[in-house]
Design goal:
Layout lengths: L1 H4 L17 E4 L2 H10 L25 H4 L4 H7 L17 E8 L8 E14 L2 E11 L5 E12 L41 E4 L2 H9 L15 H5 L10 H13 L10 E7 L8 E11 L3 E2 L5 E13 L4 E12 L6
Antiparallel strand pairs: 1-3, 2-5, 2-7, 3-4, 4-5, 6-8, 7-11, 8-10, 9-10, 10-11
Length: about 325
């Protein structure tokens, strides 16, 4: 009966190369500010007036997930299918597993971003079935600003995740005193700790983050905002989206590095345990590698460093693990 009513875009129907229509979005200062707000990033650098000398308003790198959204449902529709999240007969989620963002230049207020999206690959690992999508974003000059590979779980082999347990231990809160931001001239030793960040996931904030979009249709029936639907999922309740978790890591890195460090880089986040509504997650990390100074085409200097970040909840559970690569600019890059 289901097959007669809907042609579902399940794992067997997904094929690498399937694509959706391009989208075009002009990013405004208000968009940049609002994205930072729903990401719980209250830095004055992301207000509409801005404090950045060189860039009057520059987007957080993870905002690519908003101005160049994945839009799985549009890929499905373009290929004659109905996405599982939009089905009226067999609706279910294909939740976040991991995402890797690579950005090559800043996105400024006023930039017009065109993005394309396609299925990159599908694979089976330990009985679970995954699909990876690639989204590429270019600006009005035809320059690539960012691309990302976003992996979803189409079929989960294991038992549903356990509901929240009683706290095992108290997790230390972040210090209130800000640490010095690292610049090219002050790159520390491998193993040095980054400034931590605490994020409390309220349902209100999850709802605001889910509703904020610059392209595509909003589906209110999902595991982030619909409690009844979420209870029937593998998580047993509402959870923070993978994109939101990446925005928190983005913000945490900005506590330790100058904004110039985000002109180019990479961020990979892997979900380990659900980040549930009501959880408080501490993001903390360290420097894992630092490269030699190099000279850029314009005669400037830069240094590539790598970091590892862990997100741990109030129960002591590892919620996610991230690896970041940042390009630290030379003197004068504090913008």
């Amino acid at each position: 009966m289901v097959d007669q009513l809907e042609k579902l875009w399940d794992y067997d129907a997904v094929e690498p190369g399937q694509s959706g229509s391009p989208t075009t979005v002009t990013v405004t200062k208000e968009d940049i500010s609002w994205y930072a707000l729903v990401a719980q990033n209250f830095s004055s650098r992301f207000t509409p007036s801005g404090t950045c000398q060189e860039w009057p308003s520059v987007a957080m790198p993870t905002m690519v997930l908003t101005y160049a959204p994945l839009l799985r449902e549009e890929i499905a529709e373009a290929n004659g299918f109905v996405a599982l999240e939009w089905s009226t007969t067999a609706r279910r989620q294909t939740p976040f597993a991991k995402c890797e963002i690579r950005w090559s230049r800043g996105v400024l207020a006023g930039d017009t971003i065109t993005s394309t999206r396609r299925v990159l690959e599908k694979y089976v690992r330990r009985g679970s079935r995954f699909v990876t999508f690639r989204v590429e974003a270019t600006n009005q000059n035809g320059e690539e600003v960012a691309r990302y590979d976003y992996t979803c779980i189409f079929d989960y082999a294991k038992d549903p995740k356990d509901p929240p347990r009683e706290p095992r231990k108290a997790w230390p809160s972040s210090p209130d005193t800000p640490r010095e931001r690292f610049s090219w001239e002050a790159v520390r030793d491998v193993g040095d700790q980054l400034s931590p960040l605490n994020i409390q996931a309220s349902q209100e904030n999850i709802d605001e983050k889910d509703a904020f979009r610059l392209a595509g249709k909003h589906n209110p029936i999902n595991i982030h905002t619909d409690e009844e639907f979420a209870r029937r999922s593998m998580f047993g309740g509402t959870v923070v989206s993978g994109g939101a978790a990446m925005s928190y890591v983005d913000q945490m890195l900005q506590k330790s590095f100058t904004l110039g460090s985000f002109h180019g880089g990479r961020l990979l986040l892997r979900a380990i345990e659900p980040f549930r509504a009501g959880d408080t997650v501490t993001f903390q990390g360290e420097l894992t590698s630092r490269g030699d100074m190099t000279t850029t085409e314009d005669g400037g200097s830069q240094r590539v460093i790598e970091c590892r970040i862990k997100g741990v909840n109030q129960r002591g559970d590892l919620v996610n693990m991230s690896d970041a690569t940042l390009i630290l600019k030379g003197l004068g890059a504090e913008y």
